[in-house]
Amino acid sequence: MHHHCAIDRIFIVCKCLPSHMAFALKLYTTWSLLSGQSQLQRPQNFLRGALAPPCTVTIDFADADKRQQVTVRKNGQMVMVPLFHNLESVAGQVRVVPYPGKKIEHQGIKLELMGQIEIGLVKENPSDFISLVKELDNPGEIHNIKNYSFDFPNVEMQHESYVGLNVVLRYVLKFTITRGFGLSIIAYKDFWVRNPSPPPEINNSIKMEVGIEDCLHIEFEFSKSKYHLKDVIIGKIYFLLVRIKIQHMELEIRRRESTGSGANLLHQSEPLARYEIMDGAPVRGETIPIRLFLSAFELTPTYKTVNNKFSVHYFLNLVLIDEEQRRYFKQHEITIYRSQEIEPK
Known about the structure:
Elements: H1 2-14, H2 19-34, H3 41-51, E1 55-61, E2 69-74, E3 77-84, E4 90-98, E5 104-106, E6 109-119, E7 127-137, E8 140-142, E9 146-152, E10 162-163, E11 167-177, E12 185-193, E13 206-212, E14 216-222, E15 226-228, E16 232-242, E17 246-259, E18 266-279, E19 287-293, E20 303-306, E21 310-322, E22 327-337
Parallel strand pairs: 3-12, 15-22
Antiparallel strand pairs: 1-4, 2-3, 4-9, 5-8, 6-7, 6-11, 10-11, 11-12, 13-14, 14-16, 16-19, 17-18, 17-21, 20-21, 21-22
């Protein structure tokens, strides 16, 4: 009775498999039960082997040995990926190597180039802003090693790759050998996109004041409001009136990531850099210079409304703390850009 239950369960699985695999699994299961072997362990091992991919797939770019590589964070690890720019061609070769004695029956082979935006912690149901498809092979069989060349000419990749708190913008090649019964073979190849831009024509200075009537008056000034990623923030802080005891002062660079719109608008902010301006009480008339090198921090350019999905902004945030641990803030937005001169195409 116990054996019949096990066979019934295996036969249900068999209905989802191709006929030759289903027959082999039924025969193997019946033999296992009649020979006194454990009821489900052997069929499960057989099933794992039957469903394993019958080949290896490698995707290579045509100029992989010459193309610049960049280090990016993926799944908590730092990895090297090839770098592309807007309107470059994406070309290369896909190599399919069947395992010895295996043949691959398929219903067609294709390669997709996709640009995707994923929002949220789960990152399900990505939004595609690029979707290009190349049909590489008609339905048939693969018995030996096959090489498929591909070329996506002058691809419009105006958005940069990005990994943030709540957003991922990625570019990926997706190779698919279409097969029935949920046995399609899929391989991915990520690549990165960066787009340098010319320096801004107008770059005004920043002047701000922090004041508490009859107690505190501080001015701070920065030479400009737009910086490239390797730039230096240069400024000065003037203490015009100090009647409260300031214990600590620091300058922060904060990144604010915004997703959604209207009632669903979500802002998430994080400090990326902290610069200690002073530790101790300043006096009236004192001036403190500031030099903050941006190359030491993991910054991206400012992104304004990327595909109507998200935006990224940066702020200089001045923080003062008095002896009673009260905190005073003053914030000003700055623009970060990727310089054409520093990072040429």
